[in-house]
Amino acid sequence: MSEEQKKGSYGADSIQALEGMEHVRMRPSMYIGDIGIRGLHHLVYEVVDNSIDEAMAGYCDRIDVTINEDGSLTVKDNGRGIPVDIHKKEGVSALEVVMTKIGAGGKFDKDSYKVSGGLHGVGVSVVNALSAHLKATVYRDGKIWEQEYEKGKTLYPVKPIGETNERGTQVTFIPDSEIFKESTVFNYETLANRLRELSFLNKGITITITDKRVKDEEGQFLSDTFHSTEGLKEFIRFLDETREPIIADVIAMEGEKNGIPVEVAMIYNTSFNENLHSYVNNINTHEGGTHLSGFRRGLTHTLKKYADASGMLDKLKFDIAGDDFREGLTAIVSVKVAEPQFEGQTKTKLGNREVSSAVSQSVSEMLENYLEEHPNDAKTIVQKVILAAQARHAARKAREMVQRKTVMGGMGLPGKLSDCSEQDPEKCEVFLVEGDSAGGTAKQGRDRNFQAILPLRGKILNVEKAMQHKVFENEEIRNIFTALGVSIGTEEDSKALNLEKLRYHKIVIMCDADVDGSHISTLILTFFFRYMKELIEAGHVYIATPPLYLVKRGAKKAYAWNDEERDALIKEFGDGSKIQRYKGLGEMNAEQLWETTMKPNQRILRKVVIDNGTEADRIFSMLMGDEVPPRREFIEKNAVYANIDA
Ligand code: 0RA
Q1: What is the pLDDT of residues 590-622, one digit of tens each?
Q2: 217 an active-site residue?
Q3: How far is the CA of 95 from the centre of ligand 1 (A)?
Q4: In this predicted structure, what is the pLDDT of residue 612?
């Protein structure tokens, strides 16, 4: 069928639809955020969200995601199946409307309570537009129906292809490599993490993921099944797996306030970190918003009231601040909002004002009951709050000392910093280098015009286990603050980082390529994650990757970053190749270090990004916490940076 005939047989409306689809292909980032790895995975979430909606409407309890051998991906659910009858207004199958009309997804079914939806809530037609090929299969009314598309254009009208007693919808798509130029390869771990999160946020659904590209020794495909009966309660236990609780169990509530479904779960642990995660319609709201401020208000108000009444604060010589109620707290707030207003830099901050009081009231009710019924836990929590207030006073003193030294310039830059001559921060890089000797080599090897070196002595403080004032008293950490030129808010309640005076736009962690080195990188990363998250989010933090081998034969020499590259070089150079394994940066001379690891356009720098906030938090607490068995298991299963994208 020619292009003209196709248009002719589909009527004027479908031409409009086509134009909408073409707009998606012209400006994909407007619909899915970006066209990199993140956007690629967003396609999957968009399709899965439709099935989650069907589950939330009560018609579906199973979603199967499969990465197929050919790299395509299938999402199958056991819902009612997308209707296939002729859509009155459009004159074609409703399935076709859903798949080809931008913004049509679910809209014709006004009764369904649609609150889920991807970050942009754009619908499956966007996925269709950005796919080289897509096949939709519907199991409904005893029949199997099918339609296929290329780059969003229908290849044939919806047709029956067989009979069935199943119900449901199945979508298989191959992302278009003309759009996703960087990569069209799905990452199992990234998808599994999101699907696990979705199973906690929507209890009762069974979600499976299978990777048909990977078989184990017994010929089984890599696969996971996620199912949560207790929802957020289990999510908290999962997040805090390696932390030690100080109360008997997770405190949780679930209900509806002013027509807004609210779910909250929280626990206190022995750590010193505040660990809040919030969701709106299953989307992680990294920047918080009204639901989170409602949670904070309800928590502070209720605990303060209880503590005052208990008399435990009577002899206190210092005030208690909002922060003190959240030290060692892990909590999740999840709300469903019919028309969410997203604000902020990454559009992940909830703006709807009415949500704040709904959450605050819910939390107050939940906590009041809990404290009444669990007086021992209540006492433990208040004691923890008092300790936090005490530590905060100590921390403030230490912080102000750092502050005075940075802002007033009293101490100037750290003595160990070898600064660069360039003044424009955008052009400047600083290498955080493990050990003084490697620091020396880096100092010789660098381009001093724009590269600065800050050697760090041995293992830096594990901030996961240290109280805040210890962190600010630590010399290596103070050096990092002063060298970078960043300061922390001095306001009682604000730990926000001030990046205005950031002196380098690339901060590169450079450690040995061995176990000790990766431990040290992880310590430094933990510090950045807990105390300078804004730097990671702004894309300023990188990890250098020194080579593992030098292969030489006669005048020929080349570096290898893994065993495969090494073997390829040995083959290329032939018999008599000499192999040097670099155990540390110190074994390289200045020129080698420059050539392989520091020289722009030649080096491999991995940018640190936070792919999934809750998962990153869990990993850091596990890697740096007290419990050894889960850590060992994780390290055996993954490289240390498994969840940190390159
Ligand atoms: C609207 C109406 C009906 C089903 C769906 C949407 C639906 C959409 C998707 C997308 C993925 N899986 C889905 N499952 C169902 C059916 C209305 C009816 O049967 O009365």
Answers
A1: 999 999 999 998 898 988 888 888 888 888 887
A2: no
A3: 9
A4: 85
Confidence of residue 495 (pLDDT cuts 50, 70, 90): low
Catalytic annotation, pick one of 197, 234, 377, 512: 512
- Active-site residue 567, yes or no? no
CATH 3.30.230.10 at 232-386, yes or no: yes
Q: Is 211 a catalytic residue?
A: no
Domain definitions of the chain by residue range: 20-227, 232-386, 406-542+602-610, 549-581
How would you label 364-377 residue by residue, b for 16+ Cβ within 10 Å and e otherwise?
bebbbebbeebeeb
Instruction: Tell me the best of 82, 114, 124, 137 to mutate to test the pocket of ligand 1, counting ligand atoms within 8 Å of each CB and taking the most.
Output: 82
Render pLDDT for 369-413 as a digit per residue (tens, 0 to 9): 999 999 999 999 999 999 999 888 877 777 777 666 555 444 578
Q: Is 512 assigned a catalytic role?
A: yes
Question: How does residue 519 score in pLDDT terms, banded at 50, 70 and 90?
Answer: confident
CA distance 494 to 543: 29
Domain 20-227, what architecture? 2-Layer Sandwich (3.30)
Structure tokens belonging to residue 353: 């004002």
Work out whether strand 221-227 and strand 168-175 pair parallel, antiparallel, or are unpaired: unpaired
CATH number of 406-542+602-610, picked from 3.40.50.300, 3.40.50.670, 1.10.10.10, 3.40.640.10: 3.40.50.670
Element (H, E) at 50: helix 37-56
- Considering the entire predicted model, what is its pTM? 0.80
Residue that is written with structure tokens 């450079």 in the block: 510
